[in-house]
Amino acid sequence: MKIFVVNCGSSSIKYQLIDMKNESVIAKGLIERIGMKGSMLTHTTVGKDKVKLPSAIPDHVDGIKKILAALVNEKYGALTSLSEIDAVGHRVVHGGEKYSASVLIDAKVLRTVDKLSEMAPLHNPPNIAGIKACKKLMPKVPQVAVFDTAFHQTMPPVAYMYGLKYDEYKKSGIRRYGFHGSSHRYVSAYAAKMLKKPASKLRIITCHLGNGSSIAAVYKGKSIDTSMGFTPLAGLIMGTRCGDIDPAVVPVLMAKKKLDPAAMDKYMNKECGVLGVSGVSSDFRDLETAAAKGNARAQLALDMFCYQVKKYIGAYAAVMDGVDAIVFTAGVGENDIGTRAKICEGLDYLGVKLDKKRNNVRGEATEISSAKSKVKVLLIPTNEELVIARDTDKICKGLKKK
Ligand code: ADP
Known about the structure:
The protein is of the alpha/beta class and 402 residues long. The chain has two domains: 2-147, Nucleotidyltransferase, domain 5, CATH 3.30.420.40; 197-384, ATPase, nucleotide binding domain (Nucleotidyltransferase, domain 5, 2-Layer Sandwich), CATH 3.30.420. The protein is built from 14 helices and 14 strands. It has helices at 60-71, 107-115, 124-137, 157-160, 166-172, 181-195, 249-257, 261-271, 273-278, 284-292, 296-319, 330-335, 337-344, 384-401, and strands at 2-8, 13-19, 24-32, 40-45, 51-54, 87-92, 103-104, 143-147, 203-209, 213-219, 222-226, 325-329, 366-367, 376-379. Strands 5-4-3-2-1-6-8-7 form an eight-stranded mixed β-sheet, sandwiched between helices. A six-stranded mixed β-sheet has the order 11-10-9-12-14-13, sandwiched between helices. Helix 1 (60-71) crosses helix 3 (124-137) and helix 11 packs across helix 13 (337-344). It starts with a strand and ends with a helix. The model has no long low-confidence stretch (mean pLDDT 96). Bound molecules: adenosine-5'-diphosphate.
Protein backbone atom coordinates (compact mmCIF):
# COMPACT_ATOMS: atom_id res chain seq x y z
CA MET A 1 0.00 0.00 0.00
CA LYS A 2 1.36 3.45 -0.99
CA ILE A 3 0.13 6.34 1.10
CA PHE A 4 0.24 10.03 0.29
CA VAL A 5 0.65 11.97 3.54
CA VAL A 6 -0.44 15.60 3.39
CA ASN A 7 0.08 18.41 5.89
CA CYS A 8 -1.53 21.66 4.75
CA GLY A 9 -0.77 25.00 6.37
CA SER A 10 -2.28 28.33 5.38
CA SER A 11 0.37 28.97 2.73
CA SER A 12 2.24 25.68 2.62
CA ILE A 13 1.80 21.98 1.87
CA LYS A 14 4.25 19.40 3.20
CA TYR A 15 3.94 15.87 1.84
CA GLN A 16 5.46 12.42 1.81
CA LEU A 17 4.73 9.34 -0.23
CA ILE A 18 5.27 6.28 1.96
CA ASP A 19 5.43 2.64 0.93
CA MET A 20 3.89 0.66 3.78
CA LYS A 21 5.60 -2.55 2.66
CA ASN A 22 8.67 -1.43 4.56
CA GLU A 23 7.47 1.97 5.85
CA SER A 24 9.95 3.72 3.59
CA VAL A 25 9.65 7.25 2.21
CA ILE A 26 9.56 7.11 -1.61
CA ALA A 27 9.24 10.85 -2.19
CA LYS A 28 8.72 14.02 -0.20
CA GLY A 29 8.50 17.73 -0.63
CA LEU A 30 7.09 21.08 0.25
CA ILE A 31 5.14 23.88 -1.36
CA GLU A 32 5.72 27.32 0.08
CA ARG A 33 4.09 30.72 -0.42
CA ILE A 34 0.70 29.54 -1.76
CA GLY A 35 -1.23 32.56 -3.01
CA MET A 36 1.84 34.79 -2.80
CA LYS A 37 4.65 35.92 -5.02
CA GLY A 38 7.52 33.47 -5.28
CA SER A 39 5.51 30.26 -4.71
CA MET A 40 7.55 27.15 -5.23
CA LEU A 41 7.42 23.37 -5.07
CA THR A 42 10.53 21.59 -3.79
CA HIS A 43 10.31 17.88 -4.57
CA THR A 44 12.62 14.96 -3.90
CA THR A 45 12.15 11.39 -5.04
CA VAL A 46 14.45 9.21 -2.95
CA GLY A 47 17.46 8.21 -5.06
CA LYS A 48 17.02 11.13 -7.47
CA ASP A 49 18.08 14.77 -7.38
CA LYS A 50 15.99 17.36 -5.53
CA VAL A 51 14.09 19.68 -7.89
CA LYS A 52 12.90 23.22 -7.26
CA LEU A 53 9.88 24.14 -9.34
CA PRO A 54 8.86 27.79 -9.07
CA SER A 55 5.43 28.69 -10.51
CA ALA A 56 2.30 30.62 -9.59
CA ILE A 57 0.35 28.49 -7.09
CA PRO A 58 -2.84 30.40 -6.29
CA ASP A 59 -4.53 27.88 -3.96
CA HIS A 60 -4.36 24.43 -2.36
CA VAL A 61 -6.11 22.66 -5.26
CA ASP A 62 -3.46 23.95 -7.63
CA GLY A 63 -0.74 23.04 -5.09
CA ILE A 64 -1.94 19.42 -4.80
CA LYS A 65 -2.29 19.25 -8.60
CA LYS A 66 1.36 20.28 -8.98
CA ILE A 67 2.54 17.81 -6.34
CA LEU A 68 0.68 14.96 -8.08
CA ALA A 69 2.20 16.01 -11.41
CA ALA A 70 5.66 15.94 -9.81
CA LEU A 71 4.99 12.46 -8.39
CA VAL A 72 4.33 11.06 -11.88
CA ASN A 73 6.93 13.13 -13.73
CA GLU A 74 9.09 10.91 -15.94
CA LYS A 75 12.37 12.52 -14.91
CA TYR A 76 12.05 13.30 -11.22
CA GLY A 77 8.84 11.47 -10.24
CA ALA A 78 8.29 8.34 -8.14
CA LEU A 79 5.22 6.75 -9.75
CA THR A 80 4.21 5.68 -13.23
CA SER A 81 0.56 6.40 -12.54
CA LEU A 82 -1.46 8.15 -9.82
CA SER A 83 -3.51 4.97 -9.50
CA GLU A 84 -0.58 3.62 -7.46
CA ILE A 85 -1.66 5.88 -4.58
CA ASP A 86 -3.89 3.71 -2.41
CA ALA A 87 -4.91 6.25 0.22
CA VAL A 88 -4.33 9.79 1.49
CA GLY A 89 -3.63 10.61 5.13
CA HIS A 90 -4.16 14.20 6.27
CA ARG A 91 -2.82 15.92 9.33
CA VAL A 92 -5.77 17.77 10.84
CA VAL A 93 -4.95 20.05 13.73
CA HIS A 94 -8.18 20.22 15.73
CA GLY A 95 -10.49 17.29 16.33
CA GLY A 96 -12.16 18.81 19.40
CA GLU A 97 -13.87 16.36 21.75
CA LYS A 98 -15.39 14.60 18.76
CA TYR A 99 -12.31 12.65 17.67
CA SER A 100 -10.08 10.63 19.97
CA ALA A 101 -8.69 8.58 17.08
CA SER A 102 -8.09 8.87 13.35
CA VAL A 103 -11.10 8.57 11.08
CA LEU A 104 -12.05 7.86 7.46
CA ILE A 105 -13.17 11.14 5.90
CA ASP A 106 -16.72 11.36 4.56
CA ALA A 107 -19.07 14.32 4.10
CA LYS A 108 -20.10 14.21 7.77
CA VAL A 109 -16.51 14.21 9.05
CA LEU A 110 -15.70 17.10 6.74
CA ARG A 111 -18.66 19.08 8.12
CA THR A 112 -17.54 18.40 11.69
CA VAL A 113 -13.93 19.43 10.99
CA ASP A 114 -15.30 22.56 9.34
CA LYS A 115 -17.37 23.32 12.44
CA LEU A 116 -14.27 22.85 14.60
CA SER A 117 -12.61 25.66 12.61
CA GLU A 118 -14.28 27.99 15.10
CA MET A 119 -11.74 26.75 17.64
CA ALA A 120 -8.78 26.56 15.23
CA PRO A 121 -9.36 29.33 12.67
CA LEU A 122 -5.72 29.38 11.59
CA HIS A 123 -5.29 25.63 11.25
CA ASN A 124 -8.42 23.68 10.30
CA PRO A 125 -9.39 25.73 7.19
CA PRO A 126 -6.13 24.94 5.31
CA ASN A 127 -6.45 21.27 6.39
CA ILE A 128 -9.97 21.24 4.92
CA ALA A 129 -8.70 22.90 1.73
CA GLY A 130 -6.17 20.06 1.36
CA ILE A 131 -8.82 17.38 1.89
CA LYS A 132 -11.15 19.00 -0.66
CA ALA A 133 -8.31 19.37 -3.17
CA CYS A 134 -7.43 15.65 -2.91
CA LYS A 135 -11.10 14.69 -3.12
CA LYS A 136 -11.41 16.71 -6.31
CA LEU A 137 -8.27 15.34 -7.92
CA MET A 138 -8.52 11.74 -6.65
CA PRO A 139 -12.25 11.21 -6.00
CA LYS A 140 -12.01 7.42 -5.60
CA VAL A 141 -9.04 7.32 -3.23
CA PRO A 142 -9.96 6.94 0.48
CA GLN A 143 -8.81 9.74 2.78
CA VAL A 144 -8.13 9.64 6.49
CA ALA A 145 -7.88 12.46 9.03
CA VAL A 146 -5.27 12.16 11.79
CA PHE A 147 -5.80 14.75 14.52
CA ASP A 148 -3.15 16.57 16.55
CA THR A 149 -5.54 16.68 19.49
CA ALA A 150 -6.64 13.01 19.44
CA PHE A 151 -3.94 11.51 21.67
CA HIS A 152 -4.73 14.00 24.45
CA GLN A 153 -8.43 13.13 24.59
CA THR A 154 -7.61 10.76 27.47
CA MET A 155 -6.86 13.71 29.77
CA PRO A 156 -9.11 13.79 32.83
CA PRO A 157 -11.31 16.88 33.46
CA VAL A 158 -9.06 17.94 36.33
CA ALA A 159 -6.29 18.47 33.75
CA TYR A 160 -8.31 19.88 30.88
CA MET A 161 -10.72 22.25 32.62
CA TYR A 162 -9.92 25.94 32.99
CA GLY A 163 -10.98 28.04 35.95
CA LEU A 164 -13.53 29.92 33.86
CA LYS A 165 -17.30 29.73 34.26
CA TYR A 166 -18.46 26.17 33.52
CA ASP A 167 -20.73 27.52 30.77
CA GLU A 168 -17.74 28.46 28.64
CA TYR A 169 -16.86 24.77 28.51
CA LYS A 170 -20.42 23.53 28.02
CA LYS A 171 -21.44 26.10 25.41
CA SER A 172 -18.20 26.91 23.61
CA GLY A 173 -15.96 23.92 24.28
CA ILE A 174 -13.32 26.12 25.91
CA ARG A 175 -10.90 23.74 27.63
CA ARG A 176 -7.38 22.38 27.21
CA TYR A 177 -7.09 20.15 24.12
CA GLY A 178 -3.33 19.88 23.59
CA PHE A 179 -1.51 19.44 20.28
CA HIS A 180 1.47 17.57 18.75
CA GLY A 181 -0.53 14.45 19.72
CA SER A 182 0.85 12.28 16.92
CA SER A 183 4.38 13.11 18.02
CA HIS A 184 3.79 12.45 21.73
CA ARG A 185 2.04 9.20 20.85
CA TYR A 186 4.85 8.06 18.53
CA VAL A 187 7.78 8.83 20.82
CA SER A 188 6.10 7.49 23.98
CA ALA A 189 5.35 4.18 22.23
CA TYR A 190 8.89 4.10 20.84
CA ALA A 191 10.28 4.75 24.33
CA ALA A 192 8.38 1.75 25.71
CA LYS A 193 9.94 -0.39 22.98
CA MET A 194 13.42 0.93 23.74
CA LEU A 195 12.93 0.22 27.42
CA LYS A 196 11.50 -3.23 26.60
CA LYS A 197 8.53 -2.66 28.89
CA PRO A 198 4.82 -2.50 28.17
CA ALA A 199 3.55 1.11 27.93
CA SER A 200 0.99 0.15 30.59
CA LYS A 201 3.82 -0.08 33.15
CA LEU A 202 5.48 3.25 32.35
CA ARG A 203 5.30 6.93 33.35
CA ILE A 204 6.86 8.97 30.56
CA ILE A 205 7.35 12.71 30.10
CA THR A 206 7.63 13.53 26.39
CA CYS A 207 9.25 16.85 25.49
CA HIS A 208 8.48 17.90 21.91
CA LEU A 209 10.80 20.90 21.60
CA GLY A 210 10.85 22.55 18.19
CA ASN A 211 9.72 25.84 16.80
CA GLY A 212 6.44 25.01 18.52
CA SER A 213 7.00 23.14 21.78
CA SER A 214 4.86 21.06 24.10
CA ILE A 215 5.30 18.56 26.90
CA ALA A 216 3.04 15.66 27.78
CA ALA A 217 2.61 13.40 30.79
CA VAL A 218 2.03 9.91 29.39
CA TYR A 219 0.81 7.59 32.13
CA LYS A 220 0.39 3.90 31.31
CA GLY A 221 0.40 4.74 27.60
CA LYS A 222 -2.17 7.53 27.82
CA SER A 223 -1.78 11.29 27.78
CA ILE A 224 -3.04 12.61 31.11
CA ASP A 225 -1.81 16.20 30.79
CA THR A 226 -0.05 18.44 28.31
CA SER A 227 1.29 21.96 28.19
CA MET A 228 -0.54 23.36 25.15
CA GLY A 229 -4.13 24.33 25.73
CA PHE A 230 -7.23 25.47 23.88
CA THR A 231 -4.77 26.58 21.20
CA PRO A 232 -1.07 25.86 20.56
CA LEU A 233 -0.19 29.23 22.12
CA ALA A 234 -0.22 27.92 25.69
CA GLY A 235 2.50 26.37 27.82
CA LEU A 236 6.18 26.83 27.10
CA ILE A 237 7.79 29.91 25.63
CA MET A 238 8.35 28.94 21.96
CA GLY A 239 10.08 30.27 18.85
CA THR A 240 7.64 33.13 18.33
CA ARG A 241 4.77 32.22 20.71
CA CYS A 242 4.66 33.69 24.19
CA GLY A 243 3.39 30.56 25.98
CA ASP A 244 1.72 31.00 29.38
CA ILE A 245 1.34 34.55 30.62
CA ASP A 246 -0.97 36.18 33.14
CA PRO A 247 -4.26 36.38 31.15
CA ALA A 248 -4.86 39.89 32.53
CA VAL A 249 -1.91 41.09 30.44
CA VAL A 250 -3.97 40.54 27.28
CA PRO A 251 -6.54 43.34 27.73
CA VAL A 252 -3.85 45.66 29.10
CA LEU A 253 -1.67 45.22 26.00
CA MET A 254 -4.64 45.41 23.64
CA ALA A 255 -5.53 48.81 25.08
CA LYS A 256 -1.94 50.08 25.17
CA LYS A 257 -1.00 48.96 21.67
CA LYS A 258 -4.48 49.58 20.24
CA LEU A 259 -4.77 46.01 18.97
CA ASP A 260 -8.03 44.28 18.02
CA PRO A 261 -8.41 40.56 18.96
CA ALA A 262 -6.95 39.31 15.66
CA ALA A 263 -3.95 41.65 15.89
CA MET A 264 -3.37 40.65 19.52
CA ASP A 265 -3.52 36.98 18.56
CA LYS A 266 -1.00 37.55 15.78
CA TYR A 267 1.28 39.49 18.15
CA MET A 268 1.30 36.66 20.72
CA ASN A 269 1.80 33.97 18.05
CA LYS A 270 4.33 35.60 15.75
CA GLU A 271 6.26 38.32 17.56
CA CYS A 272 6.87 36.96 21.05
CA GLY A 273 8.59 33.85 22.42
CA VAL A 274 12.36 33.56 22.33
CA LEU A 275 12.34 35.89 19.30
CA GLY A 276 10.52 38.61 21.25
CA VAL A 277 12.64 38.23 24.39
CA SER A 278 15.99 38.09 22.58
CA GLY A 279 15.24 40.45 19.71
CA VAL A 280 17.61 38.17 17.77
CA SER A 281 15.85 35.13 16.29
CA SER A 282 13.35 32.35 16.88
CA ASP A 283 16.01 29.79 15.94
CA PHE A 284 17.94 28.26 18.81
CA ARG A 285 21.11 28.03 16.73
CA ASP A 286 21.11 31.80 16.22
CA LEU A 287 20.38 32.37 19.89
CA GLU A 288 23.29 30.16 20.93
CA THR A 289 25.65 31.98 18.58
CA ALA A 290 24.48 35.36 19.90
CA ALA A 291 24.67 34.23 23.54
CA ALA A 292 28.20 32.92 23.01
CA LYS A 293 29.15 36.40 21.81
CA GLY A 294 27.78 37.90 25.01
CA ASN A 295 24.22 38.84 24.00
CA ALA A 296 22.47 38.84 27.39
CA ARG A 297 18.92 38.80 26.01
CA ALA A 298 19.65 35.79 23.79
CA GLN A 299 21.04 34.04 26.88
CA LEU A 300 17.96 35.04 28.89
CA ALA A 301 15.62 33.61 26.22
CA LEU A 302 17.52 30.29 26.24
CA ASP A 303 17.57 30.20 30.04
CA MET A 304 13.83 30.91 30.23
CA PHE A 305 13.12 28.04 27.84
CA CYS A 306 15.19 25.52 29.83
CA TYR A 307 13.74 26.74 33.13
CA GLN A 308 10.18 26.32 31.89
CA VAL A 309 10.81 22.82 30.48
CA LYS A 310 12.31 21.84 33.82
CA LYS A 311 9.26 23.17 35.68
CA TYR A 312 6.95 21.01 33.54
CA ILE A 313 9.11 17.95 34.17
CA GLY A 314 8.76 18.56 37.90
CA ALA A 315 5.01 19.12 37.61
CA TYR A 316 4.37 16.02 35.52
CA ALA A 317 6.55 13.84 37.74
CA ALA A 318 4.34 15.06 40.59
CA VAL A 319 1.05 14.18 38.87
CA MET A 320 2.30 10.72 37.85
CA ASP A 321 3.82 9.94 41.28
CA GLY A 322 7.25 9.70 39.63
CA VAL A 323 8.69 9.27 36.20
CA ASP A 324 10.42 6.34 34.48
CA ALA A 325 11.59 8.09 31.32
CA ILE A 326 12.00 11.56 29.86
CA VAL A 327 11.99 11.77 26.06
CA PHE A 328 13.42 14.61 23.97
CA THR A 329 12.20 15.06 20.41
CA ALA A 330 11.66 17.60 17.53
CA GLY A 331 14.15 20.15 16.14
CA VAL A 332 15.55 21.43 19.44
CA GLY A 333 15.04 18.21 21.40
CA GLU A 334 16.77 16.08 18.76
CA ASN A 335 19.66 18.42 17.97
CA ASP A 336 20.42 20.83 20.77
CA ILE A 337 22.92 19.08 23.01
CA GLY A 338 23.44 22.09 25.30
CA THR A 339 19.74 22.73 25.84
CA ARG A 340 19.12 19.08 26.76
CA ALA A 341 22.01 19.20 29.22
CA LYS A 342 20.77 22.41 30.80
CA ILE A 343 17.22 21.10 31.21
CA CYS A 344 18.48 17.97 32.97
CA GLU A 345 20.87 19.90 35.26
CA GLY A 346 19.79 19.80 38.89
CA LEU A 347 17.19 17.08 38.46
CA ASP A 348 19.21 14.77 40.74
CA TYR A 349 16.40 14.71 43.30
CA LEU A 350 14.23 13.04 40.66
CA GLY A 351 16.89 10.47 39.83
CA VAL A 352 17.92 12.00 36.49
CA LYS A 353 21.60 11.67 35.55
CA LEU A 354 22.53 12.67 32.06
CA ASP A 355 25.65 11.09 30.54
CA LYS A 356 27.66 13.88 28.94
CA LYS A 357 29.23 11.62 26.35
CA ARG A 358 26.01 9.83 25.44
CA ASN A 359 24.26 13.20 25.17
CA ASN A 360 26.76 14.30 22.54
CA VAL A 361 24.51 13.05 19.76
CA ARG A 362 21.99 14.38 17.25
CA GLY A 363 18.93 12.93 15.56
CA GLU A 364 19.14 9.24 16.47
CA ALA A 365 17.10 7.11 18.84
CA THR A 366 19.36 6.47 21.80
CA GLU A 367 19.59 6.56 25.57
CA ILE A 368 21.44 9.63 26.85
CA SER A 369 21.24 9.03 30.61
CA SER A 370 24.02 7.32 32.53
CA ALA A 371 23.75 3.65 33.44
CA LYS A 372 23.09 4.69 37.06
CA SER A 373 20.27 7.08 36.24
CA LYS A 374 17.02 5.95 37.87
CA VAL A 375 15.07 7.85 35.23
CA LYS A 376 15.97 6.94 31.65
CA VAL A 377 16.53 9.94 29.41
CA LEU A 378 15.95 9.17 25.74
CA LEU A 379 16.44 10.98 22.48
CA ILE A 380 13.87 9.80 19.93
CA PRO A 381 13.44 11.49 16.53
CA THR A 382 9.74 12.05 15.98
CA ASN A 383 7.94 10.91 12.84
CA GLU A 384 4.45 12.38 12.60
CA GLU A 385 4.17 11.43 8.91
CA LEU A 386 4.69 7.78 9.76
CA VAL A 387 1.95 7.95 12.42
CA ILE A 388 -0.40 9.40 9.79
CA ALA A 389 0.60 6.74 7.25
CA ARG A 390 0.18 3.88 9.75
CA ASP A 391 -3.27 5.06 10.85
CA THR A 392 -4.34 5.56 7.23
CA ASP A 393 -3.04 2.11 6.31
CA LYS A 394 -4.90 0.48 9.19
CA ILE A 395 -8.20 2.21 8.48
CA CYS A 396 -8.04 1.63 4.71
CA LYS A 397 -7.03 -2.04 5.03
CA GLY A 398 -10.16 -2.48 7.12
CA LEU A 399 -12.18 -1.00 4.26
CA LYS A 400 -10.95 -3.56 1.79
CA LYS A 401 -11.97 -6.42 4.06
CA LYS A 402 -15.57 -5.16 4.29
P1 ADP B 1 8.48 22.86 13.77
O1 ADP B 1 7.79 23.18 15.05
O2 ADP B 1 8.44 23.98 12.77
O3 ADP B 1 8.17 21.50 13.20
P2 ADP B 1 11.09 21.72 14.28
O4 ADP B 1 10.70 20.64 15.19
O5 ADP B 1 11.57 21.35 12.92
O6 ADP B 1 10.00 22.85 14.18
O7 ADP B 1 12.24 22.57 14.99
C1 ADP B 1 12.85 23.64 14.37
C2 ADP B 1 13.78 24.32 15.34
O8 ADP B 1 14.77 23.38 15.80
C3 ADP B 1 14.59 25.44 14.74
O9 ADP B 1 13.89 26.65 14.76
C4 ADP B 1 15.78 25.49 15.67
O10 ADP B 1 15.50 26.36 16.74
C5 ADP B 1 15.92 24.09 16.22
N1 ADP B 1 17.13 23.38 15.75
C6 ADP B 1 17.28 22.67 14.63
N2 ADP B 1 18.55 22.19 14.54
C7 ADP B 1 19.21 22.62 15.64
C8 ADP B 1 20.55 22.47 16.15
N3 ADP B 1 21.47 21.77 15.51
N4 ADP B 1 20.83 23.05 17.33
C9 ADP B 1 19.91 23.76 17.99
N5 ADP B 1 18.64 23.93 17.57
C10 ADP B 1 18.29 23.38 16.42
